[in-house]
Write a structure and sequence with these properties.
single chain, 292 residues, alpha+beta, Arc Repressor Mutant, subunit A, Beta-Lactamase, 2 domains, three-stranded mixed sheet, 12 helices, binds zinc ion
Length: 292
């Protein structure tokens, strides 16, 4: 991957403050988040990792629920600390992620104050809005604080993926299903898998691959083309509003492989429905695919 030089003064201030030898801000923020977790006194042993336990560390005086907020959450200065405003009615997982994201902005605020004190308020605000790099870094930090990689990877490492298992992890970490699935995509090194989201709107299926192992990476592009012609299990799930399971033979690099497709249907307010499919090889096939 080609290295992209950062030009965002707030990110530069962050690297100056915490960087020492690590110059890649994405690696750096993972390390800083890990250090943060080490310095927090948890009321009860995690998981879940709750934003309230991190309030003192980040100098957050209050987490206040608010109606009609333009974003999921917002960080405001308050004396020598901060207030996080969070939109009322968010699901628990989305609420925690959004608050952690706002908390992560304080790394950049503090670093900018210390290392770039000559920047005007306007320049600081422009840097935050113009470049989305800080936003992406705060998302990485929020993921690390909600589902720290070492502990999370240890739990999923030897597990066999199933919806039952994925939901139990999402519940233990109080994370949203999709955030959990994406984290599994980053850290799972077990067998071959692919997890996709299907949405049905006005009788048209829209499909997005949320996570997949490297062996099936090539399929995500092809599956996009196939989005309008979903697997039977997906079609049946939408027809009956229930979970479905089926086997599907899918050619993987010139070889037909038997996969198990576990579909989980979930009724959503905003659309006709959402179904998630978990595709894993039928017993005994995973090693074979890996070696193709
Ligand atoms: Zn943000």
């Amino acid at each position: 991957m080609r290295k992209r030089r950062t030009r965002n003064p707030r990110v530069l201030a962050f690297i100056e403050e915490y960087g020492h030898r690590v110059k890649d801000p994405r690696k750096l923020i993972v390390r800083i988040a890990e250090d943060t977790i080490k310095s927090v006194d948890f009321k009860s042993p995690p998981p879940p990792f709750r934003p309230e336990d991190f309030q003192d560390f980040f100098g957050i005086k209050e987490i206040a629920e608010k109606d009609n907020l333009s974003a999921d959450a917002m960080l405001d200065a308050c004396g020598n600390g901060y207030v996080v405003h969070v939109r009322k009615g968010l699901s628990r997982g989305r609420r925690s992620f959004s608050i952690f994201h706002e908390m992560a902005h304080t790394y950049f605020v503090k670093a900018t104050k210390r290392n770039k004190p000559y920047l005007t308020k306007r320049e600081v605000e422009r840097a935050r809005v113009t470049y989305s790099e800080e936003e992406r870094l705060c998302d990485i930090a929020a993921t690390e604080l909600l589902m720290p990689r070492k502990a999370f990877a240890a739990i999923i490492q030897d597990a066999k993926l199933s919806w039952h298992f994925i939901i139990s992890i999402a519940e233990a970490y109080e994370a949203s299903l999709e955030a959990t699935v994406k984290r599994i995509g980053e850290l799972y090194e077990g067998s071959v898998f692919l997890i996709a989201r299907w949405i049905l709107v006005d009788r048209v299926y829209y499909q997005t691959v949320l996570a997949c192992s490297k062996e099936l990476m090539f399929m995500s592009g092809r599956w996009k083309e196939k989005a309008h012609r979903p697997l039977d299990a997906v079609r049946n799930a939408f027809d009956t509003c229930t979970n479905q399971e089926e086997h599907a033979s899918i050619p993987v690099r010139g070889k037909i492989v038997d996969f198990k497709v576990q579909t989980m249907y979930s009724k959503q307010k905003e659309s006709d429905g959402v179904a998630y499919t978990l595709v894993t090889p039928v017993e005994g096939e995973s090693e074979e695919i890996g070696s193709i």
